[in-house]
Amino acid sequence: MINRQKMKNITTLLLIISVFTLLSFPTSTEADYLAQLCPNTATFTPNSTFESNLNRLLSTLSSNANHSTGFYNATVQTTNNAVYGLFLCRGDVVGTDACETCVATAIAEAPKRCSLKKQVVIWYDDCMLRYSNELFFSTAPELTPLYMWDMDNATDQTRFNQVVEASMNEVATKAAYDADKFATKEENVSDLIPLYSLGQCTQDLSATACDQCFRVAIAEWRICCSGKLAVRLLHPSCNVRYAIYPFYAQNATAPEPAPGAPPPPPGAPPPPPKGKSKIPTVTVVAIVVPISVSVLLIVVGYCCITRRARKKYNQAAADEPSGDNDITTVGSLLFDFAAIQAATSNFSDDHKLGEGGFGKVYKGILANGQEVAVKRLSRNSDQGTEEFKNEMVLVAKLQHRNLVRLLGFCLEGQEKILIYEFVPNKSLDCFLFDPEKQGQLDWSRRYKIISGIARGIMYLHEDSRLRIIHRDLKASNILLDGEMHPKISDFGMARIFGVDQTQANTNRIVGTFGYMSPEYLRHGHFSFKSDLYSFGVLVLEIISGKKNSKFFQTDAAEDLISHAWKLWRDGASLELLDPCLRDSHSRTEVIRCIHIGLLCVQEDPANRPTMQSVVLMLSSYSLTLPSPQQPAFFLQSRAMGNMSEATLDSAQSISKSSPSVYEGSITEVYPR
After folding, report:
1. What is the spatial distance between Cα 494 and Cα 459, in angstroms, rounded to a whole number?
2. Which of 8, 249, 532, 651 could form a disulfide with 92 if both were Cys (CB 3.0 to 4.6 A apart)?
3. Are the C-beta atoms of residues 605 and 528 closer than 8 Å to each other?
4. CA angle 20, 22, 23 (to 5 degrees)
């Protein structure tokens, strides 16, 4: 018979373990911020009627934060100042303090993070908040979702992707037809790898609209994030997420067994009849205590591992980026140099795709058979090191169908290497300025290329978690995939802007003659409108099939922009069109694109449109475009390219210690 002191000691031990277990679980009530979307195109002034209505809306949403479904939408409307808003809590936290805390945090933080913006979406781990001056209820906008992912990849990607896609499709269908528009699924990828999936729509959507939103998100997953062990896709109207660890409150349903797994054991026998047990108390204690301790230790260990995995995922996916080139932020993308050597046959000339200002580009084939483009920085280029770090950190954080995808990098000894997705059709200039290949770019393809570039730049300027100015947009930095879709590349000159920053200055002019805006060349001033100028030049080149810096119409050495402006002014715009397109083009589309190009190259940056406006101009013919003013162009001589001596002197005076402009960037001809 066990004595009382021993029983007291055992009870104390169990109590200590229980307390330790409770302390192992997170107790913070703070909401975990994920991302925000607040374009600059719609703003309001402080102390305006709109701000008053917005405050009333947020107050209404706050007072309904404990709504039984975890969803609530409301409208506050006065003449010409309507505000529409909603919140949505994750389905498994509905009815808990976490939902109310998250909504309260979002309502408090959104006006600060998106100051004076009329259109705002902000996501937290447990909820999302959205408000706008435009009615958006019951509709899902055609937007590319934001991506967040774990840096680690599945070992057997084929099997993993099959299970993930099937799971996401199932939760999408279930959520679309669920009353609360929420569903989860738990299954096994293998005996050792579980999979947890979640899908949710805002409850104002119809089943059809919800399902369509999911399909857009899943389609983007195939492009951006397949093979990743944990992914979150955030859309203003729906979200999809999966991971190999539990990230939501699980129900009582056990995960589905893996194919071929043995059936579960038969049910436990019925309890013995009531009465005095014949098993000695010492035996009972000796059995129960070790089992209890083991179970508690397993739970504690599991919680620690889960929390560590979640922390790694959230930090990798949703870290608020700074302007620093911190290589450790993408450390898990590191490639071994020996693997890169093997993939390129030791950087054989047979694998060489092209050569730029800071190094060479090779085609490589990884051990898993994947084709890649390998950019090897020149060892004797001191200037290129910073551009290399800049490009690596920037592109690793960006995901869009019209941006080239960074797969990894290598830093070993003096070697500095970037590994990109391989784009088979090389760069736009290979087709656009080659008389033998120009015909492969019919007008339909050129129009899609213009639209795709515009969407990619809009993502950089407005929709990405970073606000980025590319600073070196040109035909050789636009890659074309197998279906001739454009992908913007070469971010070595890019700059990150703060949320409220609109302009910056530099003492070192970088970029390519013919694409740089006049305010940048003359004074070192650059802004989002600098990219608009480069885009305008690019549009005129795509339409004409002529390179701006190589275009000479008369003995006066007129540049392409000057020529386009004169034709527009004289009512003869179609004469700018590439002769190989004369018999197959849309007159309306061509003239509209010339109009947009001329708007973008106007001398005053304030007169140039935003990229979001350009995207709307390209997609909607009902919009009336303003008349372009005389563009910024420079009289030139053949010897000076596209700059006058006065302009060149002005640019060089900015920095006397180093060349003010270099012809090209990290990869002038990448890839070939």
Report:
1. 14
2. 249
3. no
4. 65
Domains and CATH numbers, the chain: 33-132 (3.30.430.20), 146-243 (3.30.430.20), 333-421 (3.30.200.20), 428-652 (1.10.510.10)
pLDDT (tens digit, 9 = 90+) per residue, 552-600?
554 444 789 989 999 999 999 999 999 999 888 889 999 999 999 999 9
Cα–Cα distance, 618 to 605 (Å, whole number): 20
Residue 669 makes CB contacts below 8 A (sequence gap 6+) with 353, 354, 355, 356, 361, 427, 476
Place of tokens 């020529």: 563
Look up residue 625 and give its two tokens. 């475009």
Confidence category of residue 294, pLDDT binned at 50, 70, 90:
low
Q: What is the dihedral of CA 663, 537, 509, 506, to 10 degrees?
A: -160
For residue 248, the SS3 value is coil
> What confidence score (pLDDT) does residue 298 get?
66
DSSP structural state of residue 304: H
**Angle of CA points 367, 370, 374, to nearest 5°:** 90
> Are the beta carbons of 406 and 392 closer than 8 angstroms?
yes
The residues facing 351 across adjacent strands are none
Residue 68 has a pLDDT of 83
Active site (catalytic) residues: 472
Closest CA to 347 of 331, 359, 357, 335: 359
SS3 per-residue string spanning 264-297: CCCCCCCCCCCCCCCCCHHHHHHHHHHHHHHHHH
The CA-based angle 560-563-564, given to 5 degrees, is: 85
Tell me which residue of 73, 63, 139 sits closest to 100, measured CA to CA: 63
pLDDT at residue number 174: 95
Residue 325 dihedral angles phi and psi, to the nearest 5° = -90, 70
Tokens of 549: 């810096």
- DSSP calls for 403-471: BPPEEEEEEETTEEEEEEE--TT-BHHHHHT-TTTGGGS-HHHHHHHHHHHHHHHHIIIIISSSEEE-S
pLDDT above 70: percentage of residues in the chain: 70
User: CA-to-CA distance for 421 and 81, rounded, in angstroms?
Assistant: 46
User: Can you tell me the distance from the alpha carbon of 589 to that of 595, in angstroms, rounded to the nearest whole number?
Assistant: 10
- The letter for the amino acid at 576 is L
